[in-house]
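thought: fold this chain, then report.
action: predict
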Amino acid sequence: MTIGACSALERICESVDAILSTATSHQRAFVVEVMGRHCGWLALNAAISTGADYLFIPEAPPKNGWEDAMCATLKASRDAGKRTSLVIVAEGAVDRQLRPIRANEVRDILATRLGYDTRVTILGHVQRGGAPAHFDRFLGTMQGAEAVEAILRATPSTPSLVIGMLENKITTQPLKEAIELTGQVAQAIESRNFDRAMGLRSASFAKQLTSYKEIANFNPDSKMKLPDEQRLRIAIVHAGAPAGGMNTATRSAVRLCINRGHTVLGVHNGFPGLMRGEISELDWLTVDGWTIAGGSRLGTNRDQPGLQMGAVAYQMQKHNVQALMVVGGFEAFTAVLELGRSRAQYPAFCIPMVLVPATVSNNVPGTEFSLGADTAANVIVRSTDMIKQSASSNRRRVFVIEVQGGNCGFLAVTAGLSGGSTTVYTPEEGVDLTRLQRDIAHLRARYIKELGRSEGRVTLCNENASKIYSTEMIASIYEAESGGFYGARTSVLGHLQQGGTPSPLDRCRANTMAVDSVNWLQARCWDAMHIPNENNVRLPSDQLKRKYFPCVYTDAPQTATVIGVIGSEVRFTPISDLVVHTDFARRVPRTIWWEASRQLIDILSGVGVDIENGGCVSEYKSCAVDLTADDLMRLYGQHGRLAKLS
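observation:
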């Protein structure tokens, strides 16, 4: 991913989200053209993020007769009850004969053949403007720091480098080979070697395209329908606080399952709803608009299944649940752990279970990114921008902004780095008088030096940074010790961070995690399709034995897992293996992978830095992965995996 791509994707999604409102009102079809002359990344991720019905990208041209295929696909969705149609076209889209596919041509086909009231929107340079998204600011800051590190390490024999991001890792790559690989995509398209063009994209790009094609449209007679004996009953439940991407993940899972012939059961109102039997079958149209919906459409809360474990088991047995997907945060983590540990007492729990991490706090063990964290960070950064504007207008004001995150400082650190925070207070570091004295001394020095032309400053404070020094107290100390050079105010963002439309990045991650989770559940269920001997299952003497067992039965520890993004890969980790890596008292993982970002905040804001004479208290540790030309060829030419990126 390059700097600016996420912001451009956000502009596209904002525009399409608005377009869909009028499209629904008038039952119209819209054809939206986005940038991407030789690259379909923006178009593909926009299609996934907005729930587009059809997609045209340069790397994967449609087969001959695409006009008929497109019309049949859109008509099937309308016949199923959908009120709108959305087609995303990359500006460089072509057919197999390299004939350009234009948005106006697609509009004419839909209007003529299907009689749809169709409009065209060409977004153009709107995609280049606007405030940068949180992730672009974060990426730009980290890559800028790594560029300086690369220059300092360079020798006369070091080749020219490009600082990039591959497989969720900041990398240094040889510039010459990187440019050559980029040019090869256009050459492959021009020579009609479309397999080669796709091969030069990352493995995740091809994977996204495959999953999009499978879930984009309603296929009542799909070739993907499975034999009756392989069709499953999969339940989805939300647990914990709401987070952006919960609904998107549910929609992707539901649509993928329906197209394969599975039955999806939606559990309403978390585990208490499961205890009460608040379960309904989810269909295609029910989840149609969930891509852009924030919060939790199924309903969620923090209650655990242990309140009435027997009632949970009864309802799961009653509805013949053969696989369980739980979407949520740390409460969902402990719930799945509890269900797994209760398998010996309740055979209804002897089914594959997967947790899709979704929490603004990003504190679920087994993953580096949780759904909702990027959405919350964007809310914080946008709020910080507005607050800084107020502070700058006053010239002499500091704002202490309280953000969520529980006992995890991820939000404060990443949003603080993206939003230009002077410093951040996190639970991992805590707050004490020595730290406050240092920060106040820095603020006074800056305001004295900038007298009359000072800019506003902000400090982010995690809600649990200190039990003693609250946000209000920190602001009061700031002002009391200011020497009259500045004033201090507070702002508590609160539950704003849990609401709003999910960010495009969270939508794309939700789609990836949901599709991989369904594939994993499906495979584990098929592996476990057998009926054990009831006499071999030991139950307490006071508990009734069941009269039957489901056709899916497994009590293996590795069938209760957490799906997570770890470095360069999506990984399924048995939840029992994560116990030793979890601080249950503080509700956080024991590993802090984002620690390097924290040091960079102080360095960039000048805290502990002697600007006049040089020198710095904080030391930045480079986290970039150095790649060679051979590494690039292995990644793109052969779609291989690199141990250094794992």
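thought: worth noting. The first strand starts at residue 29 and ends at 34.
final: tokens above.
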